[in-house]
Amino acid sequence: MKFLDRKEEIAELERVLDYAKQPKFVVVFGRRRLGKSTLIKRVLTTNDIYYMAGDLVDNVQLEMLQELLAQKFPEIGMAKFDSWEDLFMMLNRLTDRQFTLCLDEFPYMVKHSPGLSSIIQRILDSKTLKYNLVICGSSQRMMQEMILSQSEPLYGRADAIIDVRPIPLPYLQEGLGLDAISTVEEYSVWGGVPRYWELREEYPSLRDAIRGMLLGPTAVLYDEPKKLFLDDLTATVQSESLMAVIAGGASRLSEIASRMGRDATSLSAPLDRLIQMTYLRREIPFGESPKKSKKGIYRINDPMMDFYYTFIMPNMSSLARGRKNIVMEDIEAKAAGYISQHWEHLCREAVSGNLLFGHRWGEAGRWWGSVAGEEKGTFREMEFDVIAESTDGEALLVGECKWTNPEIASELHRKLIEKANRLPLAKNKKIVPVLFLKNEPKDKPNDITIVYPQDVIGALYAD
């Protein structure tokens, strides 16, 4: 698969590592499989040095880096070093030109040499460094603590911090050459992780890829969540349990705590950590304060994680017995309902901050709650899949999302207008009703705004 996206990250790396300027200290981090190493290598030149650390004891790690550096600086190969500081300072003395040294998977180095961050701090503070230093790591927890915690030696010393995130949906369509509907379906399984896309490319269909990559102990992604959690969390069992109960339908904190057999207050910190790692998200009704709302619900944010805990973990006993066909039948039977949740989220992302239907919209969300019923003193529960306010405060977009075939647009539109007219948020605002549909409806009324998958992909491409 060709290299996709990352234009902003590459531009920032090239800017900060410009050899015409003073040497820089750069930090790159993000979860595993996002292509951090590939990104860095695209910027490095043949004069630069790239070292991939391993989970090795300190002296072995030191020897391996020494051997690599000796390929460009033979004097280093003949020396004996008692510390990392000696190695870095000799490298500094030997070089007469600016180059870049990248230490990838830096957390492994710190794990076995806790004083390494302090050594780098002293070198940076001396202002004598002659080369760019880039550190990179997949442990988001360790990288963030080392750079963003005020108590850590490297706090405030980075010239650039690049947080590598998943690649947006449109690039999946480009990378795999998919139609719009297939792009949404595939994204609901693989998310924005380029390594998964590369693996998927080896299979003729999504069905074959799911069977080959996820179903069974020999599948390459069968233990993927556990591997990801091991990078960042000590309580991996608790994290997996939280993801499993949320995928199983427990979304409110009280429900999650009940399923876990734990006190709700003890789960706030681990849930917040999973949100910080972007594996979960907390949704609240549109217009409510994130800090004050008591209606918050938890959703799995990462599509592959969602797919895994929805379909793979509950079926592990069957997969251990080799019953892939039975599990595949379960996946196919529930696929539309599963994809629809991610379709809704993508529609909200497409609206957020975008100029659509004559208005610039703020952050889109969901809304659910009670409104006054037809009879006095009665109430009616309602929900909106997409809702957003225009930045000028004059309009309110209300949207209904469907991932089923076929729909009757006029009926959906009528019900959406009826609901919107009862919504307190809509008072004194222009209502902009929008249908987000998988395919063209049975009827094709000209006066109804309908958004299809290709429109969502186009909106996500928009600057």
Mind sketching the topology for me?
Blueprint: H1 7-16, E1 25-29, H2 36-43, E2 49-52, H3 58-70, H4 74-78, H5 84-94, E3 100-104, H6 106-112, H7 116-125, E4 132-137, H8 140-148, E5 160-163, H9 169-176, H10 180-190, H11 194-200, H12 206-214, H13 224-232, H14 236-247, H15 253-260, H16 268-276, E6 280-283, E7 297-300, H17 303-312, H18 316-320, H19 324-351, E8 355-356, E9 359-360, E10 365-372, E11 379-389, E12 395-402, H20 409-421, E13 430-437, E14 450-451, H21 453-461
Parallel strand pairs: 1-4, 1-5, 2-3, 3-4, 12-13, 13-14
Antiparallel strand pairs: 6-7, 8-9, 10-11, 11-12
Helix pairs in contact: 1-2, 5-7, 9-10, 10-17, 10-19, 17-19, 19-21
Describe this structure in words.
It is a single chain. The chain has 463 residues and is an alpha/beta fold. 46% of the residues lie in helices and 16% in strands. The chain contains 21 helices and 14 strands. It has a five-stranded parallel beta sheet with strand order 2-3-4-1-5, sandwiched between helices. A five-stranded mixed beta sheet has the order 10-11-12-13-14, with helices on both faces. Strands 6-7 form a two-stranded antiparallel ribbon. α20 links the parallel β12 (395-402) and β13. α10 crosses α19 (324-351). The longest helix has 28 residues, at 324-351. The model has no long low-confidence stretch (mean pLDDT 93).
